[in-house]
Each structure stands twice: as structure tokens, then as C-alpha cells.
Amino acid sequence: MSIRRFKLFPVLASVLLMGGLGACTLATAGSDNAPLPDPTVDASPAQGDQTAVLAGGCFWGLQAVFQHVKGVKKVWAGYSGGAASTADYDRVSDGDTGHAESVKIVYDPTKVSYGQLLKIYFSVATDPTQLNRQGPDVGTQYRSAIFYGNDEQQRIATAYIAQLKAAHAFADPIVTQVTPLKGFYVAESYHQDYAKRHPNEPYIVFNDAPKVVHLQQQFPTLYVPDRGEVVSVTLH
């Protein structure tokens, strides 16, 4: 088993403890840190479970966030954007496969909409202004990307990004890609539910646990507390 991200722990932990990076690496939305607006374009009513595939940094944190969202039934960590033959962690970590660390989200559209998932994504799950990186993780495999599965998802994602840009929701340009989903490949078993199973690892404590806290704070009606907390964190 090779988890290259572990190499960052000693340096990352020491920098964070000295106050160098702060407890979370999300962008600040708006000049007054106002909540993001609801999408003006959203999905039509649908019957049956729906699927969303999103990328934006380490899939550990993405999975941890969406596992706590009302209406979400299952979240897998995996890879999207490249070929099946290169969909393994060692190859993806090289940064030249076209893959991004992603999550596949199966959800009930009667409880949470695609547009609401995107609002959560942009608000607490990823920093859409960081190009080919998220915080301490650098490379195209950590890019911010929405992999749409149909025309409606493309329309909603494109419209919401345009809405956020028009509202000047972020101080820096949004660089999130909107690209067709060609395949999703489930990551190795040791990556699944990683944040939940390793809540005390420095990477999780400093990078992923705060996202779950922000989810609870910003989306109290969509937050599900009974799926197991990632870690107890107090943000100031």
C-alpha cells in the first residue's frame, strides 16, 4: 500500500500548528464572507436515485462531506477523467493520467437536488479558485471539476458557475472545469471512508474535518449527524 500524501504530514502539521496555513484551505466566498446564493437553475423533479460525480482535491475530504448530506445514500472515492488502465492510486499520483481524485454520489432527488449538491460543493467541499491543486495537494489529479452525466447536469453546473461569477462570489476567478463523465473508477478499498476511519491523522484533522464542521454550520437543514463524525473540531 502506498499513500504518498502521508509524506506531507510532518511538514504540514508543523506549519499548521504554527499558524502558517490555518485550519481550512477553502476560498472566502464574497467580500463579506456571505453565503453562496441558491442556484437559479436546478434539476427537474425526478423519480429514483440520481448520481453526481465531483472532483476537488483529496477524495477523502469530498467523501467525508457528502456522507453527511441529507438525501445522499452512498459516496465512493475514485478516479475520473482518464482511462481504466491508469485508474489506480500510484499511477494517478504521477499527475499525468488525466484522472482527478473524485467522488461518486448516489442521492435521492426528492431530498436534495443536484443544484444543492453543487452549492455544498462550492461552499465547503472545495476551493474553486485553486488551479490544479487544493491546499497542500498539488497536481492535475487534485483539480476542481464537475463531471456531468447528462445535458441537464451540464446546464445546471454551467449556469451556477456563471451565476457565482456574476455575483462576484469569490475574490479570485473560478477555475472549476465542467466536463463530460466518461467513466468513474472506484478507488482502492483503503481509501474508502478514510476520514471516518482515521479521524486523528494530521491530514484529516487539518484539511478534511473542518469541511464537515463548515457543512454543519452553513447547511444545518441538510446536515446529517448520524453517519459518524469525522472528528470534533471547534473553528474560530
Structural overview:
It catalyses: L-methionyl-[protein] + [thioredoxin]-disulfide + H2O = L-methionyl-(S)-S-oxide-[protein] + [thioredoxin]-dithiol; [thioredoxin]-disulfide + L-methionine + H2O = L-methionine (S)-S-oxide + [thioredoxin]-dithiol. Belongs to the MsrA Met sulfoxide reductase family. The active site is at 58. Residues 1-29 form the signal peptide. This is Peptide methionine sulfoxide reductase MsrA. There is one protein chain. The protein is α+β, with helices and mostly antiparallel strands. It has one domain (4-221): Peptide methionine sulphoxide reductase MsrA (Peptide Methionine Sulfoxide Reductase, Chain A, 2-Layer Sandwich), CATH 3.30.1060.10. It has 7 helices and 8 strands, in the order αβαβαβαβββαββαα. It has helices at 9-17, 59-66, 89-92, 114-125, 151-166, 194-197, 202-218, and strands at residues 50-55, 72-80, 100-107, 133-134, 137-138, 145-148, 177-180, 184-186. The chain has a 6-stranded mixed β-sheet, covered by helices on one side. It has a two-stranded antiparallel sheet with strand order 4-5. A hairpin with a 2-residue loop joins strand 4 and strand 5. Helix 2 packs across helix 4 (114-125), helix 2 (59-66) runs parallel beside helix 7 (202-218) and helix 4 crosses helix 5 (151-166). It is globular and about 40 Å long.
Q: How many discrete structural domains?
A: 1
| CATH class membership | Alpha Beta
Q: Care to count the β-strands? A: 8
CATH H-tier superfamily: Peptide methionine sulphoxide reductase MsrA
Number of helices: 7
Structural class: alpha+beta
CATH architecture: 2-Layer Sandwich
- Helix percent reads 25-40%
**Which of globular, elongated, flat, extended, rod-shaped describes the shape?**
globular
Share in β-strands: 15-25%
Rounded to the nearest angstrom, the radius of gyration is 16 Å
Distance between the termini: 36 Å
Task: Output the strand order for the largest sheet.
Answer: 7-6-1-3-2-8
CATH topology: Peptide Methionine Sulfoxide Reductase, Chain A
Described by strand count, sense and barrel closure, the largest sheet is:
6 strands, mixed
Runs in which pLDDT lies below 50 for 5 or more consecutive residues are 6-32, 227-236
List the helices and strands in order: HEHEHEHEEEHEEHH
